[in-house]
């Protein structure tokens, strides 16, 4: 059986100076801990790492943090030590959490070893141990060694069966067995109950079992009695209190601006909504009302604001009240969320995987899905989840800049954006792992379904894209290459925006300059073509062209003209004609997106307001 990888990452290793006179140095190494050994390799960006050494786990006698006041001569300032075969290996982590992860993982893997009873908590320097002044390097340690880890010391928790559903703790049931694949995971068994401690990450939830052991499990492996995983909705703000909600909604000051947030009452949620309609107390200011979402026990449809209208999930409740105020002061019209830059990271605190550098061994590549600007796109699985993997061919992308940006892109999360789950930058070719979209690119979908698409479906596609773009706009993020070829369709015919921001990392000259053949001239606003001036309003122009592609079922915009002719005719003020399938009002909206001056074009928020009222029959 192959060893299972537990942890990997870049750390700094101090030379062991096993030979007399060999130099003291500190080198960055890519460490991999698996169930058999700890290996370290030289990192060579874009290339395969070269193995430099390894330690068999069964030889390890202790692993512990180093407590020292000595100045640390490398960039990573958090040392830990591994003692094996009478050698000390000193390793430096970039922060305390990372160090703790490694020490805990190593201790867990070696706890059945024949470990020492005492160890040295400080360093060996200039012929003596700094902690106890002993002058023999292999002298018995001076501090009791504890081989157990914090995780195994937690007190047991109460039986989930005893917990009432309206308390702070939520109980979930495993719908299938899960065997840990990572440090920090928890083994769960089908049909057993667990306490849900944190569901703020979309994919990995923190749960606790009957014995009090806590750990992460894939969110798809457990089901709550009630739907709780709605953090992907734009209107959901997990950690906003009523004062901040009032402030944000008042700033928005739009009739029906709303959000759902966790209530100050444990385990409950509140809808906060802005309205200018005077309430019972007309003096009340600002005009934000907070409605507690109440829950009926033992009901199939437990959630309600107005008692006569109850729903089995909160998203259903919100959806209903988006169309009908039913007891609220106004309909829920405009979702509001905290600006992205102010949001706390949504993943479990101290989660070592937060930056989503993925372990290549967890990624299984299967079928070819297509070929794009950056290279092959493969279907595959990551932790039992179907994913799409973009393999970035060498020389196609400015990788260093991209790696930084990927962290921002991964935090963008919306049900109408194709989610970037993570990246594998340690392997070559580098790859990006995305949410899998069963029906492929929107452009192909339109062409395949030509003749079969109803007005409702066509408008629905534009609305989906507009929702995703509205989220990007409100996050101050530019797409820069919005077009039907860069949107994808899910198995339920939901259209999602993909490839946002990626145009900046293309290295192909044919693509990057407006003078060149692959530049998306037909989708670009005049100011982009003339001066490369990108903005949300330039994205709005492209959105107008995308609407045109939708209503013409995948035709090429300005199909009879070459790029030069397109530029000239747009400069003369000519615009795309109304597609046969487009109602007049839809064409009016397209033309609004194609106003010469960016400031005359609508925002996505305005478009989102207009689109649902357009004819769809
Ligand atoms: P690139 O960004 O390298 O230009 P594309 O995004 O154009 O690549 O992808 C090429 C093709 O791969 C698409 O046309 C589509 O068929 C397929 N594809 C890309 N991403 C996904 C995905 N997330 N799910 C399913 N298929 C995908």
General description of the model:
- The protein is of the alpha+beta class and 617 residues long.
- The chain has five domains: 149 residues, Pleckstrin-homology domain (PH domain)/Phosphotyrosine-binding domain (PTB) (PH-domain like, Roll), CATH 2.30.29; 65 residues, SH3 type barrels (Roll); 100 residues, 2-Layer Sandwich (SHC Adaptor Protein), CATH 3.30.505.10; 76 residues, Phosphorylase Kinase, domain 1 (2-Layer Sandwich), CATH 3.30.200.20; 172 residues, Transferase(Phosphotransferase), domain 1.
- It is 21% helix and 25% strand.
- It has twelve helices and 30 strands.
- β18 and β19 form a beta hairpin.
- The longest helix has 20 residues.
- About 6% of the residues have low confidence.
- The site of adenosine-5'-diphosphate has 20 residues, from β24, β26 and β28.
Put the structure in a nutshell.
With 617 residues, this protein is α+β, with helices and mostly antiparallel strands.
Fill in the keyword field for this structure.
30 strands, alpha+beta, binds adenosine-5'-diphosphate, PH-domain like, seven-stranded antiparallel sheet, SH3 type barrels, globular, 12 helices, single chain, SHC Adaptor Protein, 617 residues, seven-stranded mixed sheet
Helix content: 10-25%
Ligand roster: adenosine-5'-diphosphate
- Using only CA atoms, what is the Rg? 28 Å
Shape: globular
Give the uncertain stretches in residue-range form: 150-169, 225-229, 341-354
What order do the helices and strands come in, and which of them pair?
Blueprint: E1 5-14, E2 26-34, E3 37-42, E4 50-56, E5 60-65, E6 78-84, E7 87-93, H1 96-110, E8 118-119, E9 124-125, E10 128-129, E11 143-144, E12 170-174, E13 193-198, E14 204-208, E15 214-218, E16 222-224, E17 236-237, H2 242-252, E18 257-262, E19 269-274, E20 288-295, E21 303-304, E22 310-311, H3 314-323, E23 334-335, E24 363-372, E25 375-382, E26 385-391, H4 399-411, E27 420-424, E28 431-435, H5 442-448, H6 455-474, E29 487-489, E30 495-497, H7 509-512, H8 526-531, H9 536-551, H10 563-571, H11 584-593, H12 604-610
Parallel strand pairs: 17-18, 18-23
Antiparallel strand pairs: 1-2, 1-7, 2-3, 3-4, 5-6, 6-7, 8-11, 9-10, 12-13, 12-16, 13-14, 14-15, 18-19, 19-20, 20-21, 21-22, 24-25, 25-26, 26-28, 27-28, 29-30
